[in-house]
TrEMBL record:
It comes from the Bacteria. This is Uncharacterized protein.
């Protein structure tokens, strides 16, 4: 039985990964880190959890159904904002950039850090924590709250809807207003305004 439906609310527990397209057709991986909301348009899909699993398996090149993967973008991964909670063991941004660089080689097996360089995907993370304020996106100067999505990793060569099988494209939430190259933080309370509909082939 799927946990995801139109009445689902984010809470501590399972992390969901979903996919979004901005107004220019660029694609992002959205990791909700328990507290980020998912668009109602996505939650309205029957068996949406299975669809998200299929998209995620395809992204990691672990799909048993869809095996025709796009060519390696052979780009770079750029660090933007990062979690103060997740990286509290590293003291400086330079240390974190070095870590990302080491893990983002597009010739390596697909991991989160090379999703931009290898796949051309932006990566956004939901602000997490056990209490409000425990986590904060370092590098962002505005006010944030748990569940807001911050831009973590940026590609230099962009993926598009064409990089996904036609059978899975309807699982990508679509925006007419968001621009992943400029929007560094997405207000969790406005997720349905940002992504009001799903992609239609």
């Amino acid at each position: 039985m799927s946990n995801l439906n139109i009445d689902w609310k984010p809470e501590f527990g399972i992390i969901f990964t979903w996919f979004a397209m901005d107004k220019f057709g660029r694609i992002a991986v959205m990791v909700n880190n328990c507290f980020g909301d998912l668009p109602k348009a996505l939650l309205s899909i029957n068996n949406v959890e299975l669809l998200l699993d299929q998209l995620t398996d395809y992204m990691w090149e672990e799909s048993e159904i869809f095996k025709n993967y796009p060519n390696n973008k052979s780009g770079c991964t750029i660090l933007d904002l990062y979690s103060g909670l997740r990286f509290d063991y590293l003291s400086t941004r330079k240390d974190i950039e070095q870590l990302i660089q080491e893990r983002s080689n597009y010739q390596q097996k697909t991991v989160e850090c090379n999703l931009p360089s290898r796949k051309g995907l932006f990566v956004y993370h939901g602000i997490e924590g056990s209490i409000e304020g425990e986590d904060y996106p370092i590098g962002y100067e505005g006010v944030t709250k748990m569940g807001d999505y911050f831009r973590y990793l940026i590609p230099t060569i962009y993926a598009s809807i064409e990089d996904f099988p036609e059978e899975l494209r309807h699982g990508i939430a679509t925006s007419d207003t968001v621009d992943f190259t400029t929007d560094r933080l997405l207000d969790n309370d406005k997720i349905n305004e940002y992504f009001p509909r799903m992609y239609k082939n």
